[in-house]
Amino acid sequence: MEQVFFVISKLAWAVLSPFMMLNLLLVFGTLFLLFGYRTIALRFLLPALVFSLSLMIFPIGDWLIHPLEARISQPQQLPENIDGIIVLGGGEDIKTTISWQQPQVGQASDRYFGAALLAKQYPDSPIIFTGGSNLLRFDAGATPAELSHQLLTMVGIDEKRLIIESQSRNTYENFQRLKTVIPKRNGQYLLVTSAYHMPRSVGIAERQGINVVPYPVDYRSQTGESRQLDFAVFEQLEKLEPAWREWVGLTAYFITRKTSQWFPEGPSGRFVETTTDAQADIR
């Protein structure tokens, strides 16, 4: 069943991606125009024009991704004791790594830096990484496990502390497989992932009965005066893609009962809120 869900989600995103939708509108519009069907062509080209102009004029990417990032904040006070630090994969670039035989990261590489920061705060806690290849027609072999191991040690984490799960292909499988590798089933874990991805991750964790304290990183939205008319179409599209994917993912996961809520707000806070000087330094 999970294989079917994975395949359908990948195929659906191939059509629902804003960049792909824009390309399809342009391609079909141009084809109809070339074959003389001007009226039909305009039905494709006009929406493409409106979409492109909107990206130039309005911060649509910011508007969509900011609510996701603002939903769950970093804790003002970190728990005194935890049983591990969970890091969700997604910050690595598997295909480029294989192509050049050198560890490569993508936009979400802040997940590794967040893990390194917390690893110093909790020197006795294991670092639990979960994430494999989510590519539909590309066999990455052992690369995901090797790459995550390399990247985590490169940011200064002792390899003896690492617990790596590299078979999961999406966020739901992350937490499904985590249940088999976490040290304590009922323990308390800090969760590191991109801020826009945190609501869905927390919802799945709660559904799977894994107690997490969110520690979002990799913020991408701009607010207030930072939002201005600069015709940065590509920049807005870079934010729009993950934001739209996340809203679609939240909806699909809620319908299929993989999350506890449609738009999770985060755990109610089941840890002791005590702050030491060292904990204050991490803030």
TrEMBL record:
InterPro entries: Cell_Envelope_Assoc, DUF218, Rossmann-like_a/b/a_fold. Keywords: Membrane, Transmembrane, Transmembrane helix. One of its GO terms (biological process) is peptidoglycan metabolic process. One of its GO terms (cellular component) is plasma membrane. Residues 83-249 form the DUF218 domain. Coiled coil: none annotated. The chain crosses the membrane at residues 12-37, 44-65. This is DUF218 domain-containing protein. It comes from Methylophaga nitratireducenticrescens.
